[in-house]
Amino acid sequence: MPQLITEISEPTPEQFRCEIIPNGEPVVIRRLVKNWPIVQHALNNPLAFCRYLMQFDRGQDFNTAIGPASTGGKIFYNSDMSGLNCRFEQKKLEASLRFLLDNINENPAPLLAIQSIQVPSFLTGLEHELPMPLVPANTEARIWIGGKTTVAAHYDPSENIACCIAGRRQFTLLRPDQISNLYVGPFEFTPSGTTVSMVDFDNPDYKKFPRFKHAEKATYSTLLEPGDAIYIPYLWWHHVKALDGINALMNYWWGSNAEQHCDPRHALLMSMMAMSNMPAHHKSAWQSMFTHYAFSQAHDVSYIHEARRGILGRFEPEMLRGVKQAIVKALSRSL
User: Fold this and answer.
1) Could you read off the pLDDT of 159-210 as tens digits, one per residue?
2) Confidence check: pLDDT of 258 > 80
3) CATH class name, domain 3-259
4) Going by C-beta distance under 8 Å and a sequence separation of 6 or more, which residues neighbour residue 205?
5) Is this model's pTM higher than 0.90 or not?
6) What is the rounded CA–CA span in Å between residue 312 and residue 333?
7) Where do the domains of the chain lie?
8) 261: Cβ contacts below 8 Å, ≥ 6 apart
């Protein structure tokens, strides 16, 4: 049975920043955004939600996943992984909302999912009705709208607060260390930008994915109602299932790779290329190097003159530029 995610009362911004985030565990915050006008309209009825949302529409095209009812609402690969089981189009908000209302009672319904829309740019003014003091200032709100859709287990290289604003959503979370039990798909071609688990969480094929039984024992789960929110820590896997004919989610990402000196995913890919064919004892030696230089919380460099510490010292802009140029030069020689 899945473990229940810890539920807390609404924390202060200081508690959230100083206690919850450093703890690195997911939490559910019930009724965190229940007073948002958009949530109140959604609680009234789906039509009221759609009419409220249209007040902020500027007539732009929205990135929208579309597929037949045979997808079961899941945005995923096709049978031979030569493409996806749906297509992505640029559609007007009004047409998409009308489609969802027309198919609200269909089961299964054709797939339609508006993906990760930047609220200030596409629904200008709505952001002023979404107070969210828990995230850093200027963190952008993004909205996701669809019917009974399922998003395969994936991770975000950022901290995440997801707020359920219409319909119900089932979240299943796993720690980053469960990656070896999730049978992750390819890096180069993904349904939505990040690698996903190939396992159907609703109907797992244990013969094909036997280690998933271990992952199931380590899952955390919760059901969100409109107005509830969940904090998903950095790199935690999450599988998300929308349960009603019209569902909407508002989320906030921060602490991403864009705020770091470089994207760790690039380092991961380079490491995979560099070490894939190494003998086991060579890999073990490099594992010690990575543990010491990359993963230890701190290592003593006081014995090196401060002016000669380079990348072992403070990350000064000029030093970082030099390191990046050296990496680019080394990669260009190997092409």
Assistant:
1) 999 999 999 999 999 999 999 999 999 999 999 888 999 999 999 999 999 9
2) no
3) mainly beta
4) 199
5) yes
6) 25
7) 3-259, 264-334
8) 315, 320
